[in-house]
Specification:
The complex is a heterodimer of chains A (656) and B (266).
Chain A lengths: L4 E4 L2 E4 L3 H12 L4 E5 L15 E2 L11 H11 L6 H20 L14 E2 L9 E2 L5 H24 L6 E5 L1 E8 L1 H6 L7 E8 L5 E5 L2 E4 L20 H8 L4 E2 L4 E8 L13 H4 L3 E3 L23 H7 L15 H13 L9 E4 L6 H7 L1 H11 L8 E10 L2 E2 L14 E3 L16 H24 L8 H12 L19 H15 L6 H18 L12 H25 L22 E7 L16 E7 L5 H4 L4 H7 L2 H4 L2
Parallel strand pairs in A: 1-10, 2-3, 2-11, 3-7, 11-18
Antiparallel strand pairs in A: 4-6, 5-6, 8-9, 9-10, 12-17, 12-19, 13-16, 14-15, 15-16, 19-20
Helix pairs in contact in A: 1-4, 1-12, 2-3, 3-12, 6-16, 10-11, 14-15, 14-16, 15-16
Chain B lengths: L14 E12 L2 E12 L4 H11 L19 E4 L2 E4 L14 E4 L6 E3 L2 E2 L2 H9 L18 H11 L6 H5 L1 H4 L11 H12 L12 H7 L11 H5 L6 H18 L1 H11 L1
Parallel strand pairs in B: 1-5
Antiparallel strand pairs in B: 1-2, 3-4, 3-5, 6-7
Classes of the chains: A alpha/beta (656), B alpha+beta (266).
Organism (chain A): Streptantibioticus ferralitis
Protein name (chain A): Fumarate reductase/succinate dehydrogenase flavoprotein subunit
InterPro entries (chain A): FAD-dep_OxRdtase_2_FAD-bd, FAD/NAD-bd_sf, Fum_R/Succ_DH_flav-like_C_sf, Fum_Rdtase/Succ_DH_flav-like_C, SdhA/FrdA/AprA, Succ_DH/fumarate_Rdtase_cat_sf
């Protein structure tokens, strides 16, 4: 049996971003012993990259705001593919989750009367985003981090041990969710209750097992499978893959959000995020002719809500009651497609983007006060002074709407008792497109729910705890060690060098970027699936040099498994959905189709044993199926005008 | 000798072959290794480290995350200067200049450019947390922007630990580490002390005296090295440490405070 470090907890949270930390706080406050595992140092999670704010209908900026308006905006933004119950819970609970942060020491920007200030954002009817300049994610992560520390201080005061009931295992990677020995065998290697996690300590390369009846996945997204991305190295789809391998399905994987504004120059920073707050605070998009082109791209479903002229749009900032919103504040999918079209039509900026200008819209001092990180980022990395000249921006892979299929109320993963998922790794909440600002609120609302229900599940088990089998641990260890002992590229050809994991990763990113990117075509996606199959074969020969101590080449070789799995989900689902909706745009099916509205595409592992044997590349590892969504509750439907619903729902759904 | 004529990179921008010295090793020792590697227009030091990983040294250990100066992971010393690798443009060096990259010096090396920064997490735990004002419910917090602005400056901190690394109190004096929280965490005390609604005092906690008596504020002799290396340009010394020192001193020598303390002690 493999020698591993062993720990026992009640709840294990994988991921220490907003959702993971909020889940851990909740589980610990329920009195359970909780472990958090994160790939980076504590406090460095990708949540720090969130800039604009947290959406919550506190009504501080506009008293007309309430959860119903937020719910409507969220459903519209997701083109009604959202799971209505998640959107409802999210809109209702977001204000409390934000206010709660204040009691833990967060310092948001204030209104004149001392309440939390709220700013405008794309797709939100009212100014709704609580913010701290343009570094809201940092405030969120730091506040949660400091709340964790304060809970540890309570335990220290009580028993002398900071880590008695809440411990952070930093710089550790989980490679497998482990299953209960008895049920695992009984159900033929699939199904069965969760029993813990297997992983390695990045620093030492040593393996560990944490036995726990409840595991919360809060690992974030998949953006590192695309070449131009705002996401960090951590975003390799770990939680998505862990869930698949544990037997849980993913939904909505065809919906990937390309944020309209990433940096495009210099090449080394291509893809780094430029916050939507630039537009929320008055910034406008222009093409090389100097034209504000977004007026040409307002889709029919939003025609009544957006300004038709520059004059009307500019009047909105000061007098939103009597003007319609500027089209720069359309949902992200619309703006990203528009920029893409302008560049394709030859009206782009010198480096292949468009111009985003705030310098002619606000005084320099105001720009520095409201957008300090953007000012700093452009000055330091691109020699551009955004108070004096426009930025060049273009779409960048930013967020995946798809994820683990969960129960809306409890965040429990479908089909795997003891497995929960919250935040970006969970699917359903945002439908086909997420509104800016709805991510941070999602993390808090569903992070808390996942922590709460994981704690309740673990507490109810009492002595009926699952047990980890030695066999599963051995298999997981062998899988993780594989990159050190690959035999070479071609079978039977000794001396052929192993595949370079960095090169494989770059090929994967190029494939997804070129063939399953912002605009999709059937032929290209079939080609992508073919290439993914061959990359998967070659990745079995991904080899590394050196030893197990802090070896990034080894870590990447292991992460490739996850990236290839989720990339196949994205490509397969995107090929299947023959319409355009939200973050999924088909060149060959450019219209939104009401008949597709209520259909989720479900991805599951094809080999039900959870093994990833070398399979026929054309067959792939993912099995796709269609599933109807539950009908939207009547009182929620009644929040919309019938004319609007007719654009999204079929006649029979509306009962006409 | 001038550098070789600049070849064109794949995307047509000017590129050259740069010379680098990168420290490689672990807790048992190591040395500077020489590398020659392509440098393209607009790149930062972290790009070069990544290119080394992808092409010449797959197992070169480095921490990074956001690559945009927001997470504070990629701290190192570049030509001896504590810096974020992602925010150090290659254009600040001449093409024929050898660029030396070494791990932060004040912390024990784990491997290559990765150091053991657990000192900072230990210190973070020793600073008493925010104390919420009793009886103020969710949504009832009222604070003026002018009053939160001071603490907000300190909350811009991305915890890159460059200030901790550069502070001479610990950089060359390992023995001071036990008694000294370092600039980042003294600033954390100042942040909480200036928080308009922190109720520490009502709970019997004097943050100012604690800074002096328990977290080593007295070791700081305001040489401002921390401020100089801060990538967020936080005025750590002027806005956090000096005011905290003044308030701590006021407290010690204020006769009313002295009397109050005497009475409370009975």
């Amino acid at each position: 049996m493999t020698r591993v470090e062993r720990h026992t907890y009640d709840v294990v949270v994988v991921g220490a971003g907003g959702a993971g930390l909020r889940a851990a706080i909740e589980a610990r406050e329920q009195g359970l012993r909780t472990a958090v595992i994160c790939k980076s140092l504590f406090g460095k999670a990708h949540t720090v990259m969130a800039e604009g704010g947290i959406a919550a209908s506190m009504g501080n900026a506009n008293p007309h705001d309430n959860w119903q308006v937020h719910f409507r905006d969220t459903m519209r933004g997701g083109k009604f593919l959202n799971h209505w119950r998640m959107a409802e819970l999210h809109a209702k609970e977001a204000p409390d989750r934000v206010w709660e942060l204040e009691t833990w020491g967060a310092l948001f920007d204030r209104t004149k009367d001392g309440r939390i200030s709220q700013r405008n954002f794309g797709g939100h009817e009212y100014a709704r985003l609580a913010h701290v300049g343009d570094r809201t994610g940092l405030e969120l992560i730091r506040t949660l981090q400091q709340k964790i520390v304060s809970l540890q201080q309570e335990d220290h005061a009580r028993c002398g041990d900071y880590e008695d009931r809440l411990r952070v295992f930093q710089e550790c990677t989980v490679t497998r969710v482990l299953k209960d020995e008895e049920t695992f065998r009984a159900e033929g290697g699939r199904g069965g209750r969760v029993a813990g996690v297997f992983g390695y300590v990045r620093e030492s390369g040593r393996f560990f097992v944490i036995e726990a009846p409840a595991v919360v996945l809060a690992t974030g997204g998949i953006g590192k499978s695309f070449k131009v991305t705002s996401n960090s190295w951590e975003y390799t789809g770990d939680g998505h893959a862990l869930a698949l391998l544990a037997g849980a399905p993913l939904i909505n994987m065809e919906f990937v959000q390309f944020h309209p504004t990433g940096m495009v120059w210099p090449p080394s920073v291509k893809g780094i995020l430029v916050t939507e707050s630039v537009r929320g605070d008055g910034g406008v998009l222009r093409n090389s002719d100097g034209k504000r082109f977004m007026f040409d791209y307002i889709p029919d479903v939003f025609k009544e809500k957006y300004a038709q002229s520059e004059e009307e749009a500019d009047g909105w900032y000061a007098d939103p009651e009597n003007h319609r919103r500027p089209p720069e504040l359309l949902p992200r999918d619309e703006v990203a497609r528009a920029i893409n079209s302008e560049v394709k039509a030859g009206r782009g900026s010198p480096h292949g983007g468009v111009f985003l200008d705030v310098s002619t819209r606000l005084p320099a001092e105001e720009i520095k006060r409201r957008l300090p990180s953007m000012h700093h980022q452009f000055k330091e990395l691109a020699d551009v002074d955004i108070t004096a000249e426009p930025m060049e921006v273009g779409p960048t892979c930013h967020y995946v709407m798809g994820g683990v299929d969960v129960d809306p109320d409890s965040a429990a993963a479908t089909g795997v008792p003891g497995l929960f998922a919250a935040g970006e790794v969970a699917g359903g909440m945002h439908g086909s497109n997420r509104l800016g600002g709805n991510s941070l609120s999602d993390l808090l609302v569903f992070g808390r729910r996942a922590g709460l229900h994981a704690a309740e599940y673990a507490a109810e088990l009492d002595d009926d705890r699952p047990r980890v089998s030695a066999e599963q641990v051995d298999t997981a260890a062998a899988e993780a060690l594989r990159p050190f002992s690959v035999e070479g590229g071609e079978p039977g050809a000794p001396g052929v060098p192993a595949e370079n994991p960095y090169a494989l990763h770059q090929e994967l990113q190029q494939t997804m970027n070129d063939l399953v990117g912002i605009i999709r075509r059937a032929g290209e996606m079939s080609e992508a699936l073919h290439r993914l199959g061959s990359l998967r074969e070659r990745s079995r020969s991904a080899g590394v040099e050196g030893h197990r101590q802090f070896n990034p080449g080894w870590h990447l070789a292991i992460d490739l498994r996850n990236m290839l799995l989720v990339s196949e989900c994205v490509a397969r689902a995107a090929l299947e959905r023959t319409e355009s909706r939200g973050g999924h745009t088909r060149d060959d099916y450019p219209e939104m189709d009401r008949r597709w509205r209520k259909t989720n595409l479900v991805c599951e592992l094809a080999d039900r044993s959870g093994e990833l044997a070398a399979v026929d590349p054309s067959a792939g590892q993912i099995r796709l199926s269609r599933r109807d969504m539950p009908p939207i509750r009547g009182d929620l439907l009644a929040l919309f005008e019938k004319d609007e619903l007719l654009k999204y729902l079929t006649d029979e759904e509306l009962g006409t | 000798m001038s550098a070789a004529p600049a070849p064109k990179a794949a995307d047509g921008s000017a590129a050259y072959i740069g010379r680098f010295k990168v420290w490689r090793g672990d807790a048992d020792g190591g040395e500077l290794k020489d590398f020659e590697v392509e440098v393209n227009e607009g790149e930062v030091v972290l790009d070069i480290i990544h290119r080394l990983q992808a092409t010449q040294a797959h197992d070169l250990a480095v921490r990074w995350n956001c690559k945009a100066g927001k997470c504070g992971s990629c701290s190192a010393e570049i030509n001896g200067q504590p810096r974020l690798m992602c925010m150090t443009r290659m254009s600040v060096f001449a093409p024929d200049e050898t660029v030396t990259v070494t791990p932060m010096r004040a912390f024990p090396v784990v491997r290559d450019l990765v150091t053991d920064v657990s000192f900072n997490y230990t210190k973070a735990r020793e600073i008493p947390s925010f104390v919420p004002p009793p009886g103020v419910g969710l949504g009832e917090y009222r604070m003026r922007q002018e009053d939160v602005g001071r603490s907000q400056e300190f909350r811009k901190c991305i915890e890159c630990f460059l200030c901790q690394n550069t502070c001479h109190v610990v950089r060359d004096h390992e023995e001071n580490k036990a008694a000294f929280a370092g600039p980042r965490f003294l600033m954390r005390i100042a942040e909480l002390d200036m928080h308009p609604l922190d109720a520490a005092e009502e709970a019997g906690l004097d943050r100012k005296s604690a800074a002096q008596d328990e977290h080593g504020l007295g070791y700081c002799n305001i040489t401002k090295c921390c401020t100089e290396v801060c990538p967020e340009n936080i005025k750590i010394t002027d806005n956090a440490l000096i005011p905290l020192k003044e308030r701590a001193v006021d407290r010690k020598y204020d006769p009313l405070v002295w009397l109050g303390n005497r009475i409370r002690r009975r």
